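Hey, can you fold this one?
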Amino acid sequence: MARDDRGAAEPGINRDRFLSEFALALVEEPGRSNRVKDDFVANLSHEIRTPVR
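Sure. Predicted structure:
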């Protein structure tokens, strides 16, 4: 197990890797939420325009 500069055991993922993955998730999240919103609006629009039989 890795040790930090104080001698304490570090968990399996280091801080730098966590921060880089967190930053990447922040960048990707707006794009994902916009795609979900666009899909919802497209489906709702289709349902409104399609007559009920």
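The mean pLDDT is 75. Let me know if you want another pass with a different chain boundary.
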